[in-house]
Amino acid sequence: MRPITLTLLALTLAACPSPRAPGTADSTGASAAPDTSAPAVPAPAALTAALEGTEWRLVDIGGQPAPAGADSTRHPGFTLLAEGRKVQGSAGCNRMTGTYQLDGEKLKFGPLATTRMACPDMATETAFLKALKQTTRYEVSGSSLTLYGADTAVARLEAAAKPG
Question: Least CB-packed of 40, 105, 134, 146 within 10 Å?
Fold first, then answer.
């Protein structure tokens, strides 16, 4: 190219305004109007809790509402830890720990170990441990986890609210 052509090209480019992001000020301090022609971003869909890493609390056992524990540390529930496929939680009165197997929607607990404290009402704990032993698959919907034994729902749990 000839030097005159390069000079004209440089002058032409210098005269063109550079694009600004919406809402940013130009060299005069004037703010550009926001771009309203872009489509609105849709609201996020209802979030589904992750099976692993979520603290799950028992709300329904064998089709019946689970009685509330004496305090939050004794409420039946568990957390599945992906590393090592470990399960830890409370059976209601006693702490429990063990392993689980996960393959797609198939879920199997065990072996499970619990502490051996005696509590006034062990019925919920006994039913919860039985439900875990019977579990063959699961389904997560929103913040709800349903455990199935064969084709029957044996327990339903809800994701615990995270403090914050």
Answer: 40
User: What is the spatial distance between Cα 22 and Cα 18, in angstroms, rounded to a whole number?
Assistant: 13
Could you tell me the pTM of the whole model?
0.68
Residue ranges and CATH numbers for the domains of the chain are 55-159 (2.40.128.270)
Residue type, 145: L
Which residue is associated with the tokens 């470990």? 86
Looking up tokens 């039946």 gives: 76
The gap from C-alpha 150 to its chain's centroid, in whole angstroms, comes to: 26
| CA atoms of 96 and 115, how far apart (whole Å) | 7
Which pLDDT tens digit goes with each residue over 19-53? 444 444 444 444 445 444 444 443 444 578 999 99
Largest CA distance in the chain: 97
